[in-house]
Amino acid sequence: MNDYFGYAGKTVVVTGAASGMGRALTEILVDLGANVYALDRVEPPVPGIARSIIANLGERASIDAAFAEIPTDIDAFFGVAGISGVHNSFLDTLTVNFIANKYVTDTYLVDRVAQGGSISFVTSNGGLRWETPAVREELVPFVRGGDWDELVRIASEFEAEFGTIPGSLGYILSKRALNLWAAEQVSPLADLRKIRINAVLPAMTVSGMLPEFAEMKGGQDKVEAEVGPAGRLAESVDMARVLAFLGSDLAGYVSGVHLSVDYGMNSLELAGLAPDRLSWTLRGVLSRQSA
Ligand SMILES: NC(=O)c1ccc[n+]([C@@H]2O[C@H](COP(=O)([O-])OP(=O)(O)OC[C@H]3O[C@@H](n4cnc5c(N)ncnc54)[C@H](O)[C@@H]3O)[C@@H](O)[C@H]2O)c1
Questions:
Q1: Tens-place pLDDT, residues 154-211
Q2: What is the residue with the minimal CA distance to atom 25 of ligand 1?
Q3: Mean pLDDT score of the chain, rounded to an integer?
Q4: Which of 48, 56, 157, 264 is the least crowded, having the fewest Cβ atoms under 10 Å away?
Q5: CA proximity to 15, closest of 49, 32, 3
Q6: What's the 1 CA to ligand 1 centre distance in angstroms?
């Protein structure tokens, strides 16, 4: 039988491997024969991983310590970990979901991902419309910001304009910024070593994070009322399967894709068949709130 995915014997790193999508992905990758380096705040309960690395993506020193334990040649990197922002500050949410992923890529992945390798991030359907001019303009300072300290400064200054910004809005900003930033990395990474970069944008998914989204929306029934044509919430493994594909040899000509795994809900909005819920800027929302 052919190994179409091409993961057998490959070195793969998964963040957020202890729960939800990251855990489901880690199980698939182990099954496909990859040597999985699993990074999370807590021990991933997946048998067969090459190594578990406990780290906090909210702290630069912890990321640096983690990468001291990760091989210098990586075939596929999956940045899955994230926080909802529901019980997190604006800055913490932006740090874990965006700044950490940018830092990891700029500092480690550009040197370590092998020729023809792949980088895949989990962003969110909540990060849609990143490409519309008004939204993109708001994101530019974040994606062009340089190192960790500068990004923290940019985020803190943005928040200071409005007093305190809820972490849930930080979530939207972080996912939009990661989508735009990933798009901007397509050419540099192709020029470097033909490294592909893609994003998976999940709809509401059964995972460790779902209760926090349900709390924000006013209950699990509200979440379940918005499932769209699928008729059910997504399961973590639905996202894991798509991630496994995007990072694999099967997707060898796929880079710069923002794949909404939502059973067509974004398509319905784009086609004008469902109301557009996402073409707003944070500045617009926050200015109206403070007026
Ligand atoms: N569940 C959803 O409805 C949904 C929808 C859209 C996008 N997402 C995104 O999917 C990704 C995976 O989340 P999930 O739904 O599987 O949730 P989850 O809570 O089940 O898993 C997230 C994992 O990330 C880890 N993590 C969180 N903060 C960390 C940190 N600072 N350092 C190290 N590890 C950390 C957690 O320990 C956990 O294992 C996230 O990026 C999330 O934003 C989720």
A1: 999 999 999 999 999 999 999 999 999 999 999 999 999 999 999 999 999 999 999 9
A2: 16
A3: 96
A4: 157
A5: 49
A6: 34
Superfamily for 11-290? NAD(P)-binding Rossmann-like Domain (3.40.50.720)
DSSP assignment letter at 166: B
Confidence label for 99 from pLDDT (cuts 50, 70 and 90): very high
Can you give the pLDDT at residue 129? 97
Residue 163, SS3 per DSSP: coil
Q: How far is the CA of 216 from the centre of ligand 1 (A)?
A: 16
Tell me the three state secondary structure of residue 56: coil
Pocket probe for ligand 1: among 46, 97, 209, the residue whose CB has the most ligand atoms within 8 Å is 209
pTM exceeds 0.85 for this model? yes
Rounded Cα–Cα distance for residues 197 and 247 (Å): 9
- pLDDT > 90? residue 225: no
Q: Which atom of ligand 1 lies at the shortest distance from residue 44's CA?
A: 39
DSSP alpha helix (H) spans, the chain: 20-31, 60-67, 90-94, 100-104, 110-112, 133-144, 148-160, 167-184, 186-193, 210-217, 220-224, 236-246, 265-270, 282-290
Instruction: Report the run of H or E that residue 13 belongs to, with start and end.
Output: strand 11-15
Q: Interior CA angle at 160 toward 155 and 162, to 5°?
A: 110
pLDDT(145) > 90:
no
Q: Name which of 189, 250, 153, 200 is nearest 16 in CA terms.
A: 200
212 or 241, which is more confident? 241
